[in-house]
Design brief:
Shape: globular
Enzyme class: transferase
Keywords: Glycosyltransferase, Membrane, Signal, Transferase, Transmembrane, Transmembrane helix
GO molecular function: glucuronosyltransferase activity
InterPro entries: UDP-glycosyltransferase, UDP_glucos_trans, UDP_glycos_trans_CS
Strand order of the largest sheet: 3-2-1-4-5-6-7
Family: Belongs to the UDP-glycosyltransferase family.
Oligomer: single chain
Strand content: 5-15%
Structural class: alpha/beta
Length: 524
Amino acid sequence: MLPLSVALCAIGFVLIGTDAARVLVYSPSISNSHIIMNGRIADVLVKAGHDVTLFIPEYNSASTLNGSKLARIVRMGGLGSAFEEGMEGMEIFASHTASIWERIGFEDALADVCNSLMARKSELDELKAYGFDVAFSEMVDFCGLGVIRYLGITNHIWISTTPILDTVAYNLGVPTPLSYVPVVEENDLGTVMSLLDRAHNIRKYLVSIIVHHYGTHKTSAVFKRHVSPDFPNVRQIASESSLCFVNSDEFLDIAQPVLHKTVFVGGLGIGPARPLQEPFASLMEKGSKGVILMSLGTIVPTSAIPLQIRRGIFEAFANFSDYHFIVKVDKDDTESASLVQRIPNVDLVQWMPQSDILGHPRLRAFIMHGGFNGLLEAAIRGVPVVAIPFFADQFRNARTAEFRGFGIAIQKTDFNGDSLTKALRQIVSDPNFRYKLSAVRISKLIRTKPFKAEERFVEWTNFVIENGRLTNLDVAGLRLNFVAYHNLDCIAIALIIVALSVFTVYRLTRSLVRVIFAGKKKIE
């Protein structure tokens, strides 16, 4: 890799045209799916004529993916030991959802990596000197907000790589009606909630905000220590974002209130399915009734799934002899190969062109983990899904697929051969093809709606570059305290007035009754 100064100068020489803006995309290697999304953003901006640098702090040293084919890549290694240790200790089947202590531990790991990054802030000086016009960062890691401000970039665009995260809504002032909008993180609720469900939803929201304050306090302390005691809180920097691009689609996601500065760009960079190369072209011709794909993403390796569950999964696949199964496994999973030796309708692969396979006409269903990139790809391709969520937003994503009628959710604590068999039979044996028809309708709505994701993204980005920070889109609610925002003072005054009125009527009635009875006694 070229030295950073040489690389940035080289970019400047090869750029053609004077309207190109210098754009920084901050993309920590927390997971491959996030890197892929940020890489798509970078590539779309390059195609739009901009000078784009994709900065990847290596939180996970095992992730070598860049995500972009067109942007200049700058990586900073040697940061992620604390993050990697925290992820290694994660027990994916230990509980239904992550506890508050596990989530706090995740925030600790992120803050530790941020501290390691800023301890080497001199290595960022060349980025600082390059004079970026605008910067993008995603919502998972608030360290990026501080880094961007440290680099002197005041024009910032936020990316929500999931549906509008609760903490994103909190910092931007997006209303979150908890009576019908389920919390995004670690929450297995749909839109129809009972009294207890709504109470549970409120509790989940409060936990998210408490954890968020804890994490952002620690991250802000990193910048106050390494840069200046007057460095702003990263929550304040977040609230000053000109826009928030949301990696979701209005026709897929659960409907909720949004602001003018929230722009849906779900499906960005997902083009038409390309013809498959070998061995996948041949694999897709197997199975008399079609092919079923299974991939649980990159954060949950198949080697971490208990052996008895994997055995049950493959035995379940053997019962669907008319279908062929392509299953993605990780390189450390040496046991699954022996489990499928006598199951002829299963092929194991360590990599696959997922989006292109989802677009193949012989694909019948997609068994996935509920990650939103995969869910979006399935929705765009019109493929029914069986979702097994493991953490974070995946629970709500799985419920979204159910809510839209093209998927079935299986909780990880119930995940076994029997539950998977039942779900697959519901999808592939439905005489009315309800799941497939719902998937096809969602696909049509997303693909044919006015204004493509790329159009929205490029036009709004150019608008921000041309006009600077869009303070006009900031909501006044951000400046209100909790009492004023919820009109609790008005409600309290109204209740006091009602109470005083009732009390006054009561006293007057009581006095009137006494006078009447006193008069009667005198007459008698």
